[in-house]
Amino acid sequence: MQFTNIKTKTKVIALALQELINKNKVAELKFYKGKVNLNIDLDSLRKRNTHPDDSSLF
Question: Which burial class, exposed, middle or buried, applies to 6 when counting CB atoms under 10 A from its CB (0-12, 13-18, 19+)?
């Protein structure tokens, strides 16, 4: 508790569990490193109109 400046044991445990969950999520994402092919054209994405009420889409 002295390292985190958190005053209660419960909050320290909650923080530790959250950190463990985050580390596991990162580890799962690292599994896909180099396996996902993202062919994204940034210029076309920037020009794309993202307003859902635009009637020119139909």
Answer: middle
Instruction: Give strand ranges (E) for 1-58.
Output: none
Give Cα 24 distance to the centre of its chain.
13
4/16 Cα distance (integer angstroms)? 10
This prediction has a pTM of 0.53
Give the Cα separation of 56 and 45 in Å (integer).
17
Encoded amino acid at 35, one letter? K
The residue length of the chain stands at 58
- pLDDT tens digits, 4-51: 889 999 999 999 999 999 999 999 999 888 887 788 888 888 887 766
